[in-house]
Structures are given as C-alpha cells and as structure tokens.
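Q: What structure does this chain adopt?
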Amino acid sequence: MAGALTDPTLAPVAFGRRAVPQLFGDLLQPETRTRLRALGQALLASCLLPPLSQLLDDSSSSCRRSVHCVLSRLARLPAGAAALLSLVPKLMLKLREHEEHEEEHEEEHEEEVLLLSTISSCSRLDALPALASDGVSLLGRKLSHRSPYIRREAAGALMALSVCEDGRRQVCEEALLPVLVRLLQDEDMEVQANAAGVIMYTGIITAGKQRCLDLNVVPVLLDLVSREEQEEEERRRRKALVMYSLRALSSLAEAPAGRRLLLEQLPLLVRRSEAAEEDQDVRRAAQTAVRVITWTP
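A:
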C-alpha cells in the first residue's frame, strides 16, 4: 500500500481538476506501461479522441491493442459510436495497412478483430463513412481470412454496410456474393449468420436477387432453415442464422424463379411457421416467407 502512495506512477488516477490534464499527459508518455494504465482508466469523451487516435500509430502492439479495445467497447454504445464516426476513415486506413502485412502474428489478429468490431458498430449507426472509404471492397477481402474471428467481424461489418442501397449495390458489383454463399457453410456459426445477413439485405435489390438465384443459394438457405435444434441452447445460438435465412428466402421469393423453387419446398416452411415450440420471431419470419411464396396477383 505504501508503495502505491509514494510512487506517482502507481496512482490509479489524479483527483479533481488535475484528473483530465494528467490523463492527457499519461496518454502521450513514452513509457508503454503508463499509456496502457491511462487507457484502462479513461472515461472516454469526444475530447479524448485526438490523443487516442494518435496512439493507433504507436510502435507498441500492446498499446495499439489496448486503444482498439477501448474504442471497440465505446462503440457498443450509441453515443460512443456517434463520437467515433469521425474516426472511421482512419480506422479503414488501418485496416488497409493490416492487409498489406502478409506475415501476421496472433496478437495482430486480435488487433484486427477489435478494429473490425469498431467499424461494424459505427457502421450500424451510419454506414456512409465506411462506404466512402472503400469499405465494401476492403471488408470483402477479409471474408476469406484464415481466422474465423476476422471472417466473422468482416461479415458483420459488411452486413452493416448492406443496410444501405449503395452498400447492397457495391456487394453485387464487387462480386462478393459467391464468397458469401460459401460462408453459409463455414465452420463458424456466427460467420454463417453474418453471411446470411448480407445475403438477406443484398437480395432486396433486383441485381442481388438475380445473382443469388444464379448461385443456387436457395437450397443452401433451405438446408440451414430445415435443421431441427434439439436443445434450447442450440435453438438460441442458431436464431440469428435461421432468421436471416428465412428473410433472405422471402426476398428471393419475390422473383418468379425464386417463387417456383420455393413452392416445391413449401411444406418445410409451413412446418416452421406453425410449430408451437418455435421461437416467436422465427415463426413470424417463416409465416412471412410462406405468405410471399404463395402470393398471387
């Protein structure tokens, strides 16, 4: 205890009016340990973004990773994501720099996962900054990364960009749908779910519908929807994947070719729409799919 009181570098925070000035000072200290401690104790506000953004270029990988951890957690809050929107162009630049380094260590993978998570959270609030920074193309190249965590976050961020019509159009133009269809069979369920989410949004536009049908995605989506979950925990974990797949099928059923394919498999979807033990959201999504498939002019 005595050491903590006499050694100023071990003090948790300064008090009163000295707190913020000391925090700024600690963030700019050459000693990595001091910067890390300051980052861990900071209560982020927009006025702290400039020194934090400077530390994204720090030579210490542990310091950069700590900055990304802070930003990723902050971005989970709507107010935090809003404060970080101005930083998105720099985050996209950092993502491009990661792409240029082929020899990556596991710690750099962790840094990239946090970076993608922040981009995803910000893009759910406003996709335009990432779209303006070549986001679809950059994220698309991450979909084939060997790390499932990077594939998962990249697909999640791409889904956020696909909410906009411009994002959907770019997904088609960048020829990402073949990769996304392959990811529907990824070993990681969250990668599958996020890929299904991008297909769900992209299938809203005519070009997306046609390309998905050309890629024969309907049987793949039906297979994902038809798998019966034996345990409640499995049902909970697969909910997003099933919901996105059902909504994607609803979009594809709006095209005559898609409707013809799905009419042949209608009993399967009717069962999901009527099952008493089914999750209410999944049941409603299945009912919508049945309604669209059976619609007649």
